[in-house]
Design brief:
It contains 8 helices and 12 strands. The longest helix has 19 residues. The protein has 228 residues and is α/β, with parallel strands linked by helices. Helix 1 links the parallel strand 1 and strand 2. Helix 2 packs parallel to helix 3, helix 5 crosses helix 6 and helix 6 packs across helix 7. 43% of the residues lie in helices and 22% in strands. Bound molecules: calcium ion. Calcium ion binds next to loops.
Amino acid sequence: MVGEKQILLVEDEPAMALGITDALSFEGYRVVHAPTGRQAVELARAACPDLVLLDLMLPDTNGYEVCAQLRKLSRSVPILILSARSQDSDKIRGLDAGADDYVTKPFSLGELAARVRAALRRVERAAAAPQAVRIGRAEVNLPGHAVLLDGREEALSSYEVELLRLLLEKSGEAVGRDEILDRVWGVQAINSRAVDNFIVKLRKKIETTPDKPQHILTVYGRGYKLVP
Ligand code: CA
């Protein structure tokens, strides 16, 4: 049972909105729909959704702007961008604006439902994690999606939280890219280079000298290893 999780769907195309609403309602989610960016922010404020599906091409504002505003309302709500754009620069821009995942249209409703389940699972796992963990000089708060390093606080995306959780669980052991993909993304829709990009971003938040990492180490031919 999904326990009546509420999903905010931000999508201006009626047919697309209807298809997604039907598919997710069938899976047991409650879907609230916003056809514009302005309505999306209003609904997010009023309804506190458990997850947001966000189309990038909206009639009033662009999706990146909406994403940044939603991220200000909630640091931990998973935001999945839906867009026909498939270029890497758009994906990076979306992730930089605070999105957790990126689903390129056309996608199957089955794939979308799998991504939604995986994102909600990450939130549940993060909530069950210990409040504060120390990695070197960084103080990591997994349920709060935050890391404090030398007095500066940075937000962690739900992928970064899950990646850290996995590395912490296997502290001192090498964790392979395939295992990271399988556990953190749950679906094999992303290539293993993405794992390396996430590691680079995480090091910037956790390591005092990110290009000479002391805690999140590369194990050649194996993967990555955390040394707290
Ligand atoms: Ca659109």
